[in-house]
Amino acid sequence: MSQRLWGIDWRSVLPWQLDEIRVEYARLADVLPFMAELFPRTFNTGKQWLEEEMTEAKRRFGEEMDVFVFRDGEKIVGVVTGNPSDWSTYYWRVAGILPEYRRQALLTRFTERCYAPFRAAGVRRMEVDTSPGNRAMVRHLSGQGLFVTATMSSERWGQVLRFTKFLDEDAERTFTTQFLDINTTPNAERRQR
User: 1-123: CATH homologous superfamily?
Assistant: First the structure.
């Protein structure tokens, strides 16, 4: 969908090396066994995405998603999926890294590498949802400069926080001015007034 909407062909952008870890573009079918093994240990919610019936619509949606696989040699050690949620917003749907690889900051380094292709394509923000109880992810996202921009509750995922990373300075300034009442004027500029 990123290619159809924004012209981002991840197959030509990737692979990326994050030290020994190679990030490649993949198909959902390539990573479903890894997800089926990792997710029950990682996500502590009732009905998982993988447990829902694989309908034709769900299969087509999976084929449209961007799927990024993290490999140590040939071993899959992580997966990230995402998709455009509108004409200027990218939504990170799922991220899972094996516990023994989490201290390598793979998700941070990967998403930071995504900023340039997204900005070049006109993407203004990236969004991700997480449980407020997932303190490690809440700390991680906050530490990466993402803002809590919404909360949501559903029968599928329970309560989640929506975090947004603004890739466009004007969009971030608008958000912080209207909703956070944060003075984003640099200190030197404030002193000159």
Answer: Gcn5-related N-acetyltransferase (GNAT) (3.40.630.30)
How many Cα atoms occupy the beta-carbon half-sphere of 78 within 13 Å? 24
Q: Closest Cα partner for 99 from 36, 48, 40, 38?
A: 38
What are the domain boundaries of the chain?
1-123, 126-193
Tell me the C-alpha distance between 192 and 63, whole Å.
54
Using DSSP's 3-state secondary structure scheme, residue 147 falls into strand
pLDDT digits (tens, 9 = 90+) for 96-123: 899 999 999 999 999 999 999 999 999 9
pTM score, two decimals?
A: 0.85
Neighbours of 93 (CB within 10 A): 18
